[in-house]
Amino acid sequence: MARRGIEYKYIVAIVSVFGLFMELLDATIVNVAIPTLAREFNATTTSIEWVVTGYLLSLAVFIPVSGWAGDRFGTKRTFMFATGLFTVASLLCAAAWSIESLIVFRAMQGIGGGMLTPVGTAMVFRAFPPEERSKASGLMVIPTTVAPASGPVLGGFLIDYISWEWIFLVNVPIGVAGFVVAWRFLREHREPNPGRFDIPGFVLAATGMGTLLYALAEAGTKGWTSTEVVGFGTAGVVLIAGFVAAELRAPQPMIDVRLLKDRLFRACNAAQFVGMTGFSASLFLLPIMLQAQRGLSAFESGLTSFPMALGVMTAAQPVSRAYTRLGPRRLIAAGLVVASLTSFAFYDVDGGTNLWLVRLLMYVRGMGFGLMLVPLQAATFSTISPAMTGRASSIFSSGRMVAQSLGVAVIATVLTSRLSHHGAALGNPATRAGAFDAFQEAFVIAGIMTLVGVIAALAIRDRDAAASMRPRPVGASTPGH
């Protein structure tokens, strides 16, 4: 295939898109199904939250494993294993018989998905030279954003016109295709000294994040001062601090936190973490508000949020071209400002708001997301050596998933708390006004969370990312070609 004119770097990008699309599609396709799944399994708000949070947490825990696995067993083998596991877990989700079994199978999906993302990212950024990173980001950002934005539309259609099981079964043909293409076209890559698997680091990361997110999930119903919330929250923070201390001492850490000593890498990860916390919070709120309070069907709700994908597609290529002139700092900060303003605008959205205004807000939000994501992906690995790209990709991808998990957990807690404050219940006509007040206040919190990311973005120095901003030398060769 490469001999017929397609460079290997583009083959890698195509294969990676299969994994990214499937994993990111599944991260949001379930959001629009939350009300349906809650009715199907007679689940509480706190329980149903774990269908989303459990998946994201599992992603975050197993993303670091993929960095070591790719270096030890090879990126091709790891990518194929993760694709196969994700596909099988999707079949099991469709066969779930209770909310507990669904949460367990979603966690299994997260294991596969968590290993797909960083391995795919590492393969792409090894294949593309530093001066072409903005081009690679411009190519990847469209499917990367179309997938999560398409999730609510596709999920809504399947729920309204077929059945909820198909929101998981839709992954099967994508997974099979990705597995076959990876087997047929990818080249194997291993690092010579991957080291041993860091068991203490894995255990501390898994238990620390699990206990902390459990405390956040329970805070909405039991209160921030309850013994259970304080106990689990404190334990989570202590375990995560222990994880960082252990990784700093480990000769072969699961997450090499010493990479964060790199100024550019640290600043980009901080901007991503804070920004994605607010992004995921808003995306969690919108379908619940549209369905429970506006009475939209799952499909109608998905169509209302889909303009966000169009906004990203509008911004992606212009931002990619502007990157070499403007640098990452201003573009990322501008994207986060736009995103936060759209969240604040939802403070005026209620039962009488024209849905076209909501769609316009989502379109503008998508443009903000494109403004942030393209330069962030291009700049983050500018100063990272090829040998450390796999481990660095694990940190970057894990941080994104932890941020999304944290955003969903925090905003679900805020929403539950504000509903209780206003004496409202979701979908209850008698408390409709109070419920809209609760959603509006939650959107303001989500906007503040995103706006804080601007502070982190301003810490990025464009000169540190100079390697990714230089035009490609004429006649230069590319890795793997």
Please tell me about this protein's structure.
With about 475 residues, this protein is mainly alpha-helical. It is about 75% helix and about 0% strand. It contains 18 helices and no strands. It has helices at about 10-30, 35-40, 45-75, 75-95, 100-125, 135-160, 165-170, 170-185, 200-220, 225-250, 265-295, 300-305, 305-325, 330-345, 355-380, 390-420, 430-455, 465-470. Helix 6 packs antiparallel against helix 13. It starts with 7 loop residues before the first helix and ends in a 12-residue tail after the last helix.
Which descriptors would you attach to this protein?
mainly alpha; single chain; 481 residues
Question: Which shape, going by the Cα principal axes?
Answer: globular
Arithmetic mean of pLDDT: 80
What fraction of residues sit in β-strands? under 5%
- Portion of residues within helices: over 70%
Quickly give the structural class.
mainly alpha
* Biggest beta sheet attributes: none
DSSP, total strands: 0
- Run of helices and strands: HHHHHHHHHHHHHHHHHH
Tally of contiguous helical segments: 18
First CA to last CA: what distance?
Answer: 12 Å
Radius of gyration equals 21 Å
**Which residue ranges are poorly predicted, with pLDDT under 50 across at least 5 consecutive positions?**
472-481
